[in-house]
Amino acid sequence: MKISFNGALGDIENSPCTPTGWLQGDGIFETLRTVNGVAYAYSRHIQRAIKGAKIAQINLPELELVSQSVAAVIEAEPHPDGLLRISFGSNGQWAVVHLPYHPHNKAATVRIHPDQCAVNGQMIKSYPYVHRLAILEEAKLLGFDEALVCNTDGKICEGAVSNVIMKIEDHWVTPPTSDGILPGIMRELVIEHCGVDVESIPISRIDEVREAILLSSLRISQPVASIEGRELEPSREFSDKIRAMVILHSLG
Known about the structure:
alpha+beta
């Protein structure tokens, strides 16, 4: 498989990356959905990477070189539906990988993760990512598609690997970043264009949730079928509206 490592296109076996393109050590990363070679919300992801790099004190390469590397990797490893990951290590190394992605075509079943997560300052998209992937894997082993994570104040944060919006009392809400969530790109878009409000959601109100949708740069918008076995109302229409909005506003 071809990847770009420090701006040079080559075989992944000749780089210090894992077989799925993760850099060793620690750093920040951005994961983007590609459709027919087009990376969704590329500019927004790069702007988030710039902010994250400042917080993590990581020096980024020239952004034009990053853009050229992304184009080269997508051309070398084309996929109709793809996962594009751009990683920037704290040691100055960086990598771009393009993997096949299999879209979610059904509504998600969701559990509530039993362990609360502490909120420690501003959230950035960083690796190693093993803790969140472990929460997701545990949910899947129990027969769920995703897990909701709560903070130590008893407020819903997000999914293990996704943001969430919920319909309570006829309006859609999503938790604020101060509750310990990653400022997701799709979350940003639905707040800007779909009338979603930003409010804390205490876990004590979970039974008031009528509908819910998972948001991420890969899923885009995935309706939630149930939470802990309690069936929710279908939200396919609003989910489709979000997808149409994303195509309109994120190409670039």
